[in-house]
Predict the structure.
Amino acid sequence: MNRMKTSKQAIIHFGLCLALCSGIVRAGDGDLSERPAVRQFIDDMVARHEFSNAELTGLFNKAQLQQKIIEAISKPAESKPWHQYRPIFITQKRINAGVEYWQENMEILSRAQASYGIPPQIITAILGVETFYGKQTGGYRMLDSLATLAFDYPPRSRFFMSELEHYLLMAREEQIDPLSMMGSYAGAMGKAQFISSSYRRYAIDFDGDGKRDLWNNNADNIGSIAYYLSRHGWQAGQPIVTKVTIADNFDASTVGAGLEPNSSVGDLRKNGVHIDNTIADDLQGVLISLENMPEPEYWVGFENFYAITRYNHSALYAMAVYQLGEEILAESAHFQSAPQPDAKPATEPNVISDTLAGAGQ
């Protein structure tokens, strides 16, 4: 009898392990909508946004909560030290592909620069870091990613609950089946990897075909990235970041923490940060330390570096974008003399904006 009981327990344990290892955990065999938090979310969407209760109930009962999504978000690449993070993105293969992408989309990139002031190499590098220029956009259903993180990931459930709300609104506005869209484990979509709130607020129709498409349309992806950075403080013609050294007696407590520029270059110099003399004293910057071997690297980031961190709130990410962009720029020198389109004043694109939009990434 004990042997049979043990055998049954082993079978049950094996079944649970199999479900976890396969990355799929179904809530009550399709009754996700019966969970109190999900039920409350559905009721709220019906009350505030006039969704159909029956349609949302049916939709959530098709969602699959996936353990591998929680595992992935718990170990982001940005948790690595710089000397391990950099080689992921600064590779000759990624540089060469970036040069090719720039050549193929030169007119669109030039037009985005004329409209919003964003250099082509920065837009190209963001696409390179995010999705290898659109080749790796994510293999998770968006509904699965957002439902898993909203209802089964307490550390950030509030944020992802909001993103799930944005996602359903976006699907309705864009007239897309919410079960059909694929993206990353963290709920980012398309070649540009916009999260739902950013898609609604910053995705633009850059080729004028009447729709915003960040999955297939290069013009919309390029224009949307440019618009996003411009709305987050990009200053055309200003520096992005510069490598510095620090004095032996440098007092780190004199410099504020975080990613946002918080000290003038003049004050940083007075405190022992050796910055290129071509950079004006009144420019605002932030000291950044990157964990490298055999000793840390020090940089000063400016407003444009901070704008890149609004895309992904990580100094490592912004530095990878900057350095990949510089490598692409250097190898693209032979065609940079191509005629550029006449600069036009940027116009406010037709984007969705309401009290929910604008959470950013």
